[in-house]
Amino acid sequence: MTFSFVQITDHHLGETESQLMKGYSTAHAVRKVLRHIAENVGERIDFLITTGDQVNDASEVSYSNFCQMFQLQAVSAAPGPALVTLEGLQAFPMYFLPGNHDDRELFFRYLFADTPSMPLMNVSFQHKGVQFICLDFGAGDDAVAYPETLDYLERSLQAGFPSVILTHHHMVPMGNRWQDDYFLDKEKSEIFWNIATQYQAQILGVLSGHVHTTYEKVKRGIPVFGLRSTAPQVVFLDEPFFCLQPLHYRLVTVQDGILTTRIFEVPL
Prior knowledge:
Blueprint: E1 2-8, H1 26-40, E2 47-50, H2 60-70, E3 73-74, E4 82-86, E5 89-96, H3 104-111, E6 123-127, E7 130-135, H4 147-158, E8 163-167, H5 177-180, H6 186-198, E9 203-207, E10 215-219, E11 222-226, E12 233-234, E13 242-243, E14 247-255, E15 258-266
Helix pairs in contact: 2-3, 4-6
């Protein structure tokens, strides 16, 4: 079975579309990316996934703005799909993960009102025989490999389906101090990889956000992918330094048990 989907990530929207983040219009950037998706790949993808940080400063007003902007219609339990309509996408299915900037209670109240709020959104969904495992490492700046998250990963993989793991936080080092220090629980992050290694043959890939940077790595034989945000991007220095780069989204195709990806670049 063959299908494709698109990953976007880290939108950091404000309380209004005109609100800026470090002088940068995150709403304009999201609209540019979604317009490009609609015009170039919309007819050949089954759904969208966003890997977290829907808003920058979590508030009821921010989430209300987010839902209005996306004309979001929740038609299933979290993580979706919900239906979104904007920039040429009409009632298009989209899955949502929370990030470290997302308040879990508000995330559920506004995006998935019929789903009881969870402190950690460890959930999964299936599409054409592939299991998508959504793992939550918390709402703080520092990722935490909670025992319940690791247990959920192992239980999900034990089901035996070919699987894609979705996370907000990055699961491999980036090579700079301020980003890699986010995952302080090094011992438990190794437990994640020990579990994943046991099921390496059925894991098609790991897709993450958080670091606002596009990368492709392999760890213990498992492909690991990160993605440039639709918010300001960062460069690899030991202190936070934001810059303006073309926006990215990732087209992912699963065919005959193999996951391949292509990056699309969108000018601001």
